[in-house]
Amino acid sequence: MAGVIKKFFVASMFMWMAPVAILYAFNHNLLPGSANLSPYSMTLVSGFLAVISVNVVIAFYIYMAMKEPSDKHEPDPAFLAEAKASVNQSTSQAEAGVNQSTSQAEDSSHSLKKKE
């Protein structure tokens, strides 16, 4: 669990730091060739690269999550038991609702036949 939180924290920090660093570098002419760009072009290029950097960090985070072994994580048995009970309860309530609505429909059809 601590490893997951650590990876999430690191990815979140890079998602914040990478675009800010790119925008800072462009605005202070730290990248070669950025001084030759017009202000409009510099804004477009720096914004585009900042967005791309966030997407790269997200892709890297997804890759790291997919690379984790799935057998390493075992679900909590108490949680599983509670979830199964909840599903069974909602299923039985849904079946009871269907049976009740079916019996009501049959009763109304019988009363219509009696009126005729």
TrEMBL record:
Q: Where is this region: Disordered?
A: 84-116
What Gene Ontology terms describe where this protein resides (cellular component)?
endoplasmic reticulum membrane; endoplasmic reticulum-Golgi intermediate compartment membrane; ER to Golgi transport vesicle membrane
GO biological process terms on file: vacuolar proton-transporting V-type ATPase complex assembly
What parts of the sequence cross the membrane? 7-26, 38-63
Q: Please give the superkingdom of this protein's source.
A: Eukaryota
Q: Where in the cell is it found?
A: Endoplasmic reticulum membrane; Endoplasmic reticulum-Golgi intermediate compartment membrane; Cytoplasmic vesicle, COPII-coated vesicle membrane
Membrane topology term reads: Multi-pass membrane protein
Offer one Pfam family short name for this entry.
VMA21
Where does the record place Polar residues bias?
A: 86-106
User: Which InterPro entries does its entry note?
Assistant: Vma21
Q: What are the alphabetically sorted keywords of the record?
A: Cytoplasmic vesicle, Endoplasmic reticulum, Membrane, Transmembrane, Transmembrane helix
Query: Where is it chiefly localized?
Result: endoplasmic reticulum
Family per record: Belongs to the VMA21 family.
Q: What does this protein do?
A: Required for the assembly of the V0 complex of the vacuolar ATPase (V-ATPase) in the endoplasmic reticulum.
Listed name of the protein: Vacuolar ATPase assembly integral membrane protein VMA21 homolog
Organism (species): Lithocarpus litseifolius
